[in-house]
Amino acid sequence: MAVVEVTIAPLGTATPSISKYVASCHKVLAEARDLKYQLTPMATVIEGDLNRILEVISKMHEVPFADGAQRVSTLIRIDDRRDKELTMAGKVQAVVSKL
């Protein structure tokens, strides 16, 4: 299982706000019932099978284009641990337990 952080941002739109694009991308993500995800102030974190996550991110990347953007920047950061189960909650708990 992987934990992936993704930020999808349209470039060159009429307004500096991108929240409507983020909301549209999250509608695509919400349809992927086999993935867990968390919206954060700066990105979205997704947990699940890496290939499935990348498939959904590809669909999310197309959303701003469908909404009129001419250019889209997508940043992806992958944490794919194979020696033990990796989850969003587990990563947070590992730090909290040391505080």
Instruction: Give, in spatial order, the strands making up the sheet with the most strands.
Output: 2-3-1-4
Mean pLDDT: 95
> Which percent bin holds the helix content?
25-40%
Tally of helical segments? 3
Supply the number of structural domains. Answer: 1
Shape: elongated
Q: Give the DSSP E fraction (strand runs of 2 or more residues).
A: 25-35%
Summarize the helices and strands and which ones pair or pack:
Blueprint: E1 2-11, H1 19-31, E2 36-39, E3 44-48, H2 50-66, E4 71-80, H3 88-96
Antiparallel strand pairs: 1-3, 1-4, 2-3
Helix pairs in contact: 1-2
Report on the structure:
This is Thiamine-binding protein domain-containing protein. InterPro entries: MTH1187/YkoF-like (IPR029756), Thiamine_BP (IPR002767), UPF0045_domain (IPR051614). Residues 4-95 form the Thiamine-binding protein domain. Belongs to the UPF0045 family. The protein has helices at residues 19-31, 50-66, 88-96; strands at residues 2-11, 36-39, 44-48, 71-80. 14% of the residues are buried. Helix 1 crosses helix 2 (50-66). The protein has 99 residues and is an alpha+beta fold. It has a single domain, classed as Alpha-Beta Plaits, CATH 3.30.70. The chain is built from three helices and four strands; from the N terminus they run E-H-E-E-H-E-H. A four-stranded antiparallel beta sheet has the order 2-3-1-4.
